[in-house]
UniProtKB/TrEMBL annotation:
Superkingdom to which the source organism belongs: Eukaryota
Domain Tryptophan synthase beta chain-like PALP, residue spans: 183-460
Source lineage: Eukaryota, Fungi, Dikarya, Basidiomycota, Agaricomycotina
Protein name as catalogued: tryptophan synthase
Catalytic reaction equation(s): (1S,2R)-1-C-(indol-3-yl)glycerol 3-phosphate + L-serine = D-glyceraldehyde 3-phosphate + L-tryptophan + H2O
PANTHER family: TRYPTOPHAN SYNTHASE (PTHR48077:SF3), TRYPTOPHAN SYNTHASE-RELATED (PTHR48077)
Amino acid sequence: MPHLPDGNHRLFHQNGFMNSELPDIIARIRKHASVPLAVDFGVATCIHFDIAVEAEADGVVVGSRIVSLIKEAPAGQVPQLVENFCRGFKGSSPSNSSTAGVQSSRYHYPVVAVITRPTGMSLLPPRFCRYVLEAHYDCLLELEEASNATRNNPMFWDEFESHYGYMNCPSKLYDLAETRRSQPYGSHKINNAVGQILLAIRLGKTRVIAETGARQHGVATATVCACVGMECVIYMSADDVRRQALNVFCMRMLGAKVVAVESGSKTLKDAVNEAMGDWVTNLATTHFLIGSCYGHQPSLTIVRDYRKLIGREIKAEMKEATGKLPDVVVACVGGGSNAVGSFYEFIPDTSVHLVGVAAGGEGMYGYRRSATLARGKPGRRTISARFDYPGVGPEHPWWKDSKRAEYVVVTHEEALRGFCLCTQLKGIVPALEPLHALWEVIPRAKTLPKKTNSVICLSGRGDKDVE
């Protein structure tokens, strides 16, 4: 589309003023267009609608004004208010006033395009969103349709479960003094990688890309790609490539190409950006196997659906071991995927207290910490490679604000104390990330009744952190 001269790229203003270049813009685009042409960017009134029609537009798209009406409408009055608004435009009729799409004014009355959802696309939960590049949109719809088709398909889950032996599932609970935890050998990342590689095969993709910080998702992705003979490219920040040299070696041994990202702040965020850039130029052949519950929908629910295996195993094994649900479930939170997996099955079980633990870094006040939820703003200092992403998946703030889960922080020093206790007393070398959760349980256990059962998700092994 030609560049719009207006600095904020709006074609209209609330007083009815029209960008003077609109007729010229429409004429220039129509020379190349073989489909109906619709006008958007600030359409909010009948005056705007009339101006667009007079400028020879085939349709008019009203988006943000509809959203505002919905937000402002009293409970139960949303449909009527939106319908009345749509009827106020010329050419609207009861049969087309809420049509999702565009019709041509040259062949039909022009309509207001009330943006709902394309055919086959699910409505998103209010805590999810999808603000993405236009080039990604069709690919995301394809991915969501494939995911929806498998979510309640017994044959897909039979195939998924057939790989349990390979995934070391189910994990076992191990007694750790008066607490319990899940299997530490390896990582929860393999659950998601197996599920998504099955989706990629169904979609006919021949190439997989992924991003990784601590490498555990990278190794899991490289592993499943090696199993099915698919090309694999892993994006890591240059800093993580250096400090995770052994793990980079593992990924390359598995046949993956590892790309060291030198741009930006050289952290996981920049690796994600580079992977997104690769994906947008290779959509037809490539599946982006995202490793955590941040980013775009449907990856949010896809990652959650494959990670909730963690909570399902905790629930089943705690009932077997104790005859009841755990009292407390604790997991570390970076992007939030292992915590989503640990918590999700327990959301309806309000007797189970859920605790997410973020990296307090060198202290809570200032920038040198990664406690996004606890502090309400990003911070970028952590010794844990997976915790330096300046955000968290949308399920977690939803649970925090609704009081369903508690979110706390543990500092570098405390996490390393947990490391010493775990290795010296139990002979287990866990990753730095879940050590934040481990340390949180130690002082918390002293305040709980003696028969309280707490589960800690030790979501990765620590060979990656030896240096």
